[in-house]
Design goal:
Blueprint lengths: L35 H4 L6 H19 L3 H14 L4 H13 L3 H14 L4 H13 L3 H14 L4 H13 L3 H14 L4 H13 L3 H14 L4 H8 L11
């Protein structure tokens, strides 16, 4: 049995404006205001745009405090003011997913992608929801779309590696876990997945090396500690 570390759903984004070629926001964050400047959407009247930005900021604060219902209400109010803002729908997808409202979260991410088709984080989050629903092929399509938009997106490489592993494409999965680690050397979930793939491939020394890196980065991660304690991982040296 191979345990995979899923790791990456891109979370909340604070107010950031980035060029489209550079992607939307850092993986693992939520977006705090409207994305009209990024998406090429027409300029909104100052008042609703400012009100929407305030509601998104409030929603982010509530989400950080664990008030999912309050965050949802704030994001929904922001959506009413900024219906063509992809970031509002993205944030809604995050909180709906946390509330267990998977179908609604899927719809929110899909709306974000209709507005901005190259939204890498939305592709990644949508793909992870599809993967958990057993829709592996659809998930792979979204992970590949995320990587087309952001080739060095470590979270999407890890997500695609998980999906390919489930699909039985171990060599391709290993390649994407390695790319995730290359893009983010401290990404311990991807290192753990890479170690597991090395182990499956019989590359035990490389597996042990990656497990040791996982323990260095995340000393309390028990599965990596247990893997290193397994004498079958690295054969003993030959007798002299």
């Amino acid at each position: 049995m191979v345990i995979l570390a899923l790791g990456a759903v891109a979370l909340l984004i604070l107010r950031q404006v980035r060029p489209l070629a550079a992607g939307r926001a850092a993986p693992g964050q939520v977006v705090a205001t409207g994305g009209a400047a990024n998406s090429g959407s027409p300029a909104l009247p100052t008042e609703p745009k400012d009100q929407g930005a305030e509601l998104i900021t409030r929603g982010n604060d509530l989400l950080a405090k664990g008030d999912l219902a309050g965050a949802l209400a704030s994001y929904q109010a922001a959506r009413n003011l900024l219906p063509d803002d992809e970031d509002v729908h993205y944030n809604l997808g995050i909180v709906l997913s946390r509330l267990g409202q998977t179908n609604e979260a899927l719809a929110a991410y899909e709306t974000a992608l209709k507005i901005f088709p190259d939204y890498a984080e939305a592709h990644n989050n949508l793909g992870n929801l599809l993967l958990r629903a057993g829709k592996t092929d659809e998930a792979i399509t979204h992970f590949r779309a995320a990587l087309k938009a952001l080739p060095d997106y470590a979270a999407a490489h890890n997500s695609l590696g998980n999906a390919l592993r489930i699909a039985g494409q171990n060599a391709a999965a290993l390649e994407h876990f390695a790319k995730a680690v290359e893009a983010n050397p401290n990404y311990w979930e991807a290192r753990f997945n890479l170690a597991n793939m090395y182990r499956v491939a019989g590359r035990l020394e490389e597996a042990a090396r990656e497990y040791r890196e996982v323990v260095r980065i995340r000393p309390d991660f028990t599965p990596a500690q247990q893997a290193l304690a397994d004498p079958a991982l690295v054969p003993p040296p030959p007798l002299r």
